[in-house]
Amino acid sequence: MRGPLFASLVFACLVVASCLIGVAGLFDGAIDQSMLLAVSRLPRTFAALLAGAGLALAGVVVQMSVQNRMVEPGLVGTPESAMLGLLGITLIAPGAALMTKMSVAAASALVGTLGFLALARHVPRRDPVLLPLVGLIYSGIIGAAVLWIAWTTDLLQFIGTWQSGEFSGVLQGRYELLWIVALIAGLLWLVADRITLLGLGEDAARSLGLDYRQTLLAGLVLVAVIVSVVVVSVGSIPFVGLVVPNIISRWRGDNLRRNLPLIAWAGGSLVLACDILGRVIRYPYEIPAGTVFAVLGAGMFLWLLHAAPRKASHG
């Protein structure tokens, strides 16, 4: 009971802090409290929780898909591919509906991720660090292409927005696409056993009766949708999909079905905590949550590389 109680207390404290902290005081009488909560504070809180949970869940699916704990969507070119799709639809149909832009971004993200998987088949797996390095180069190439196209078409301001990972612009009516993450989280929990088999590799998964290619494609479609929704809504946030699944795995073992709710909770809570920190470090100015998490995530990643793994129960 102590674990769920602690998680609930942390969650409640973060939500209350997020609702209270801001330039406009909730109790100073200068603005309607219910309107401030409904229009700004609660949407911002929900957006941070959903974005963090979604990126953490996307991370664990990618790690299972490539059988490597050191990768995440940001290291396989998924966010950069989503930005490429967004850039394309912005140039072709600047007035397109938000759902249309998200769909194009998701399709582009899926193509980019599949491109990395095709490349990964030729990367030796003896050194687990080699695949993330290849992914970093692959992501950098796509990112460079996005930057060049944006520069030549005078759309650099859009790239800055999609890379910022910040929640100051989140308002009621401008974040609701992120609730798709909650639906995908439920779907991932239902197919958690199939995702676990992906982590065993193609031959082992097929020997256990899994349709490997179909399951892999379905998982990557969900990852592409999550990443595109987050990029469209609040921008890219690095390291979430890398460090959160690894921390939970070290703490609770590799029972994916049992870990998925914890991964979602930890991802959402950490991103919301970084958003709160970004509001108070230079108050009344803000530091984007993506920047704060990049600093903290880099430190956590170094710890994961050097800390001895903890022996955990798998029951």
Radius of gyration: 19 Å
Task: Find the structural class using helix and strand composition.
Answer: mainly alpha
Strand elements, count: 0
Please summarize the sheet with the most strands: none
What sequence of helices (H) and strands (E) makes up the elements? HHHHHHHHHHHHH
Provide the helix percentage: over 70%
Mean pLDDT: 87
Shape: globular
Number of H- or I-type helical stretches: 13
As residue ranges, the low-confidence spans are 311-315
Distance between the termini: 17 Å
Instruction: Give the strand content.
Output: under 5%
Describe this structure in words.
- This protein is mainly alpha-helical and 315 residues long.
- 71% of the residues lie in helices and 0% in strands.
- It contains 13 helices and no strands.
- Helix 2 crosses helix 11 (240-252) and helix 7 runs antiparallel to helix 12 (256-280).
- The longest helix has 34 residues, at 33-66.
- Mean pLDDT is 87; it is low at 311-315.
